Task: inverse folding
């Protein structure tokens, strides 16, 4: 382990050191080492895979639940959606209403979800000694994915309205 | 482009059900209705009057034949065409079909907003005026479930009339009205036809209508005119 003087380029030093040392010696900067460790834990152990798998499952299950809720709601108000279409409102407008509802569901679900995640991640860190960080960026991307998931479910749920002739519903 | 009648129907057939359950309702219907006419469609219950009206109103896909409404062919038309035609039509449904979550005023505003030709403040003003005209000035902020059957029907009529549509299709519109309000609604339709050149297709069936002089209607069209009965 070398401590470099202030202002020294770590990458340059690493490259220079490499030239003097045999090929089977690894010379790494601090960030090289961190990346190598992350790659190892992600690729060589199932932890990374399970995390990704868990996230995808969460997305799919979430989408199915939102779809179920919206589909039940759309079915219940089929007559009213058909009335809007009969008045001449475009399909886009109808989809917009359902997507809006989905967004409200998404936002309402997200914040309790975040609170739950903070609580759980503290527990999980204590139990597994895995470093779990909830960065703002990560939270934001999860939020956007939640909204995307809700929008997809909404568009699937609204197909029923679009497929029928308004007169078939009355 | 030559000026064509707002409603031109040729060789229109319509059936419900599939396979063994298939039942043809409309047989080779053909008619041409000029602008500003008030046409009353007659025929016994179950003869397909509502079916014909929903076909003309672009609310049902045309199966066979030609239905031209306001210059657009509806048979095999794309959704955008159907939406465009629906916007120009005021449709009074057999059931009132109001939105339960909205007040009477908001329901009527929906009918004006979809026309896309009024400013925001104008929409509310028009909706108020027309609700007053059908004697619901006191009940504008009530929700449909707080209204009686007749009142709901009047809200539905107001919703159809508020946008001054190019065409009015009414499926037994005065069914739940008393004689007096039934007469007022018909008079309002007549003034629409006169002043705005609105073409009107009506299905009657109520006593309130029959008490009106037959001269109220420009012409009559029988669903059975050119068709065999099943
Ligand atoms: N959606 C439908 N599915 C199957 N049959 C229908 C449907 N709508 C109407 N019918 C049948 O078509 C016939 C004509 O109905 P309709 O047009 O409502 O008649 P009218 O308005 O003249 O009383 C009736 O026998 C009715 O049972
Ligand atoms: Mg009928």
Result:
């Amino acid at each position: 382990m070398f401590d470099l003087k202030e202002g020294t380029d770590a990458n340059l030093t690493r490259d220079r050191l490499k030239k003097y040392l045999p090929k089977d010696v690894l010379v790494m900067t601090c960030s090289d080492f961190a990346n190598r460790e992350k790659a190892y834990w992600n690729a060589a152990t199932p932890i990374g895979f399970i995390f990704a798998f868990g996230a995808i499952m969460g997305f799919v299950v979430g989408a199915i639940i939102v779809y179920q809720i919206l589909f039940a709601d759309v079915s219940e108000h089929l007559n009213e959606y058909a009335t809007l279409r009969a008045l001449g409102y475009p399909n886009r407008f109808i989809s917009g209403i359902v997507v809006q509802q989905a967004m409200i569901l998404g936002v309402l679900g997200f914040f309790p979800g975040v609170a739950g995640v903070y609580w759980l991640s503290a527990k999980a860190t204590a139990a597994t000694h895995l470093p779990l960080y909830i960065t703002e960026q990560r939270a934001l991307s999860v939020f956007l994915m939640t909204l995307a998931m809700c929008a997809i479910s909404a568009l699937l749920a609204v197909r029923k309205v679009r497929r029928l002739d308004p007169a078939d519903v009355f | 482009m030559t000026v064509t009648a707002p409603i031109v129907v040729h060789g229109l057939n319509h059936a419900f059900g599939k396979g063994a359950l298939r039942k043809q309702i409309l047989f080779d219907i053909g008619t041409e209705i000029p602008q500003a006419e008030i046409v009353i469609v007659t025929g016994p219950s179950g003869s397909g009057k509502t079916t014909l009206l929903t076909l003309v109103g672009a609310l049902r896909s045309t199966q066979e034949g030609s239905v031209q409404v306001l210059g657009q062919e509806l048979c095999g038309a794309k959704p955008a065409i159907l939406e465009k035609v629906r916007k120009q039509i005021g449709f009074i449904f057999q059931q009132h079909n109001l939105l339960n979550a909205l007040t009477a005023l908001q329901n009527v505003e929906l009918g004006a907003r979809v026309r896309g030709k009024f400013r925001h403040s104008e929409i509310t003003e028009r909706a108020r005026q027309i609700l007053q005209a059908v004697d619901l000035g006191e009940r504008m902020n009530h929700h449909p479930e707080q209204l009686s059957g007749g009142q709901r029907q009047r809200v539905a009529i107001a919703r159809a009339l508020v946008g001054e549509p190019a065409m009015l299709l009414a499926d037994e519109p005065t069914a739940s009205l008393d004689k007096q309000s039934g007469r007022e609604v018909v008079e309002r339709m007549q003034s629409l036809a006169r002043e705005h050149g609105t073409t009107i297709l009506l299905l009657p069936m109520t006593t309130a209508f029959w008490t009106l002089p037959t001269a109220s209607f420009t012409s009559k069209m029988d669903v059975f005119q050119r068709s065999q009965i099943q």
In short: DSSP finds eight helices and no strands in chain A. Chain A touches chain B through 17 residues (CB under 8 Å).
